[in-house]
Specification:
It contains three helices and five strands, in the order ααβαββββ. By secondary structure, the chain is an alpha+beta fold. A five-stranded mixed β-sheet has the order 1-5-4-3-2.
Length: 123
């Protein structure tokens, strides 16, 4: 399985299914986190995800790219618990031995109905 396939499976099985059962399969015990609201390690991620999943998020991946041990995922995140809330996100993962080892993200809350000045749309 490629690093890109591992990340896509992680998004599907964990984030879109709201299921932390297989976290240990995807994440290294020493998982490093660079999002300011999430603690390091599997337990730090699980603590964050339990609260995040209450919003019933769904990630629709638009683009994914792999460069060596790095995977870049650009997606739209919607929330079933709050349909007015939408974000565009770029998650960046570093993988080691087939597992997520490190994470960064860039996100922007948006109203998808608001036009972009360029006319190109958000996605």
């Amino acid at each position: 399985m490629t690093n890109k396939e591992i990340v896509l499976e992680f998004i599907d099985k964990v984030f879109n299914a709201w299921d932390l059962t297989d976290c240990d399969k995807y994440m290294r015990p020493d998982y490093r986190q660079h999002s300011p609201e999430v603690k390091d390690g599997r337990d730090g991620f699980k603590e964050f995800a339990e609260g995040f999943f209450k919003g019933k998020p769904h990630m629709h991946v638009f683009k994914i790219a792999e460069d060596g041990d790095m995977v870049f995922v650009f997606f739209k995140c919607t929330f079933g618990a709050n349909p007015d809330m939408t974000a565009k996100v770029c998650d960046i993962y570093r993988l080691e031995d087939g597992m997520l080892a490190e994470h960064w993200d860039v996100l922007q809350s948006i109203n998808p109905d608001d036009p972009c000045a360029s006319g190109n749309g958000h996605f």
